[in-house]
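Minutes, structural biology subgroup

Action item carried over from last meeting: produce the C-alpha cell record for IclR family transcriptional regulator (Bordetella genomosp. 11). EB confirmed the sequence was re-checked against the source entry. Recorded below for completeness.
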Amino acid sequence: MNNEHYVNMMDAAGPADAGDPAGEAREPVRGAQLVSFAARVLRALAENTREGARIVDLVARTALPRATVHRLLRGLCAEGLAMRDGDGRHYLGGLAFELGLAAEQQFPLREIAAASMARISTETGDTCFLMVRSGADAVCIARHEGGYPVRALTIDVGNRRPLGAAAASLALLMHMPAAECEAYIERNASRIARYGMLDADVVRRMVANARRLGFALNHDNILPEVSAVGVAIPTRAGRPYAALSVAALSSRVMKDDRYLAIAALLRREADEIAGQLGIGRTSADY
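Output recorded by EB:
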C-alpha cells in the first residue's frame, strides 16, 4: 500500500490528537478500529456479489459515515480487495478471491460435504446449498444443482444472508439459546426486511416452527412459489456452524408433505458429514 492510500484509510478512523502524548499509545486502538470498519465494508460487498453496491448502499449497511466508506473503498480498491465498475458500483476484488482460495485449505468442510451434496441433489432433483456461520450472517460456500429443469438458484456461492433469511441460516438460528436468537433477530431486523416478505416477527415465527418440526422450513417466505428445507450439521460443542438446505419450487417441496422426506435426507447426510469430520454426534443429539 503506498503512502497516499495508507493516509486515506487512516483518515477514515479519525484524525490523531495533535500533540497528545497519549496518541502513540492509542494508535493500536485506531488501527484495530480501522480493520473493523474495513471488514464491515467487505462483508457488505459480499452481500451484493452479483449486482454490486453503491456507496449509499454501503453507508446504510455498515452504519459508517459516507466519508469513511469512501476512503475505505479507495484503499480496498488500491489493494485489490474491492473493485469499482463504470456505474459506480463496488464489488469484491481479485485479492479477496485469492485470499479465499488460500484459506480454503484450513476449512475442508466443502470438500467433505461434496459427496453428500451430490447425493442430495441427485435424490431430490433440486438444488442443495451449504452455508456456514459468519457472525450475524451465514455465507454460502457451496451449491450443487439437481436435474429438475426448473431450478431454484436462490443464493450464489459467496453470498451472505442475515441469520434467518435463508433456510440453512434459519437452521443455524434455531439451535441458539432463546435470548441469543432474539438478539440476532433484533440486530438483523432492518436487513432481514430486504428479503421477500420477511420481517423480524416472521423470522420469530419461522424459528418457533423450526423448533417444533426439528428442521428449518421456508414456505414462500422469501421468494413467491419457492420453498426450502434446512438442517444443521452437528458439532462436538453442540452449537452448529454449518447447515445444508434444499430449495425448489413450492409445488415440489410441499406436495404430499415431501418436505418431510427432504428433511430426513438432509439429516442423514448432515450426520454423514459430521462423522467424516470426526464429530461423533448426530442430528438426534439436538
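Discussion: Strands lie at 82-84, 90-92, 127-134, 137-144, 160-162, 216-219, 226-232, 242-249.
Next step: EB to file the record with the rest of the batch.
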